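Sample log: Secretion system protein F.
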Amino acid sequence: MQLHDLMARLDLAVIRLQFYGAVRMELYEALSLLLENRVLLDVALKDMYKIYSENGKKPKRALAAVTYDCYREVADGKPLSKALSKWVPYQEYTLIAAGERSGDLKSSFDNCGKIITAKQDILGAILLATVYPTFLMAMVCVML
């Protein structure tokens, strides 16, 4: 494996780490708004890339990289769900694919936002349920 390939894989891994729930929600909200205003999908993705990358100056930002990748794939004739499949969780991918088949991407983006919010709420509850008792046990151990 060459150094160039290794760096490309590292860049991809970093972008995937930066493309977490809140960032995906931002993408879905922007796409939903643009599609609601009857902007063509490929035009929306190209414009979003320009905005997120600051006209190409910062192409390695998570949203810039994802929108550029999606733009290339959509321009090649692939569906958006296929373009996003390597970036988003399976549940969101299937919702977007269903939205494409039904012709209602806006509601599928809204549902993806609901899934992300629900996952964040569940994770917060799990962390609270485990961290707080652990903290209390640590305090008891310190006092003994």
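Observation: The mean pLDDT is 91.
Observation: The CA atoms of residues 33 and 75 lie 20 Å apart.
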